[in-house]
Amino acid sequence: MRFHLRLVPVVAVTLATAACDMPRSMDVNRADGPLNTIDESNLNDIMLTAAAPDEAVAYFRRAYSENPARVDLRRGLAASLVRAGRADEAVAHWQAIVESDAAIEQDRIDYAGALIRTGAWDEAEAQLDRVPPTLESYERYRLEAMVADANQEWDRADSFYETAVGLTTRPANVLNNWGYSRLTRGDFDSAESLFLQAISYDPDLFTAKNNLVLARAAQGNYQLPLVQMTEMERAQLLHTAALAAIRQGETDVGRALLAEAIETHPQHFEAAVRALAALDTEVRG
Q: Where do the TPR repeats lie (predicted)?
């Protein structure tokens, strides 16, 4: 959501001495002027970007209930609900916003994003189709790529992903999505390259690391990639590689990887222990 602030110039005026006798309420009332609006806008931005998701939901729900005519507050509530993983609740708010006279094109993009999170792909596509082609943004093309993926329109998906990557300085997530798209198509080598690119932009993006292990395992390479990882991440990635090996019939490789994952994990690795026990039980049976 965007806030367009108009800074109102303040002119200092020398008042007569009699002004000292004015009621103090005049000073108090100044708190409701333009500077207070600016402070509120800053607070809204902070709540949307920095606050804990549930805290942001509570803030905007309270603010919107007190000012139901404020579309900006309803936008904040819808966006914070999505951040909190409550897209089902956000959809109703976004729908009301796009149907109002105060709707802007970005609202349709945000509405489409919430619909995708609920699995309503056709409705999301319909909303994106109503966005003018002149509105070119990272978020718009990222969602267009995801819809094209869902429709298995691979050429369109690749084109949208490529455009989205070029419209942001932080492309890690969209590169990861693009890589996963290539992975599902069986283009493992290309997927591996895209996951590596994603990690180069965000070394902490674990989903890209996990997907990278899957892409390598699909090619019969079960060694962990040379990327930055914590001890716990290493154990989890070994577990992923082990399960991939077992699914591909490489049970001995899988067993060795599970044992290494259990040994590597800094705590008790219950999932790996269960998988190894199940594998040994199956072999004995």
A: 172-205
